[in-house]
Amino acid sequence: HSNRTIMLSTVALAPAFNAPAMRAPATRSAVTMFSEGDLGVLPPLGVYDPLGLIETRDMRRYEIMEIKHGRAAMLGFLHVIALHAGIRVPGYLSTSMDLKFEDVPAGCFASLEAVPTAGGLQIMILTCMQE
Fold first, then answer.
1. A single GO CC term, please (predicted)?
2. Which residues of 45-65 are buried (b: 16+ CB within 10 A; e: fewer)?
3. What is the maximal distance between C-alpha atoms in the chain?
4. pTM of structure
5. 119 belongs to a structural domain
6. Is residue 73 located within the same domain as residue 106?
7. How far does Cα 55 stand from its chain's mean position?
């Protein structure tokens, strides 16, 4: 019962990682998104942008990406906590190698070494496709 709840809650969180569709602005205008007193605008520098990239890029896209990656990092942190608490997904990680999820150690490098090479490639391909 608890594993089913975990899976359903994970599926429910999936929309939190999707950025809203963005449209290109009809006209380019001067960037005026920062003013004195805004978060990150500190005296005496103001906005630290030595290369002037803020004026040439749509910063809203980068803000959305930062929020998305922050949420993924928080989910990864909860995953590590759950592993160290002894919570494991039932079933097999690799049926051909007779490797169950519960057999994978909780340590960072030890768990990476326990995953078969084909599984590691699948994880990387899935991550690239999601990005």
1. chloroplast
2. eeeeeeeeeeeeeeeeeeeee
3. 62
4. 0.53
5. yes
6. no
7. 27
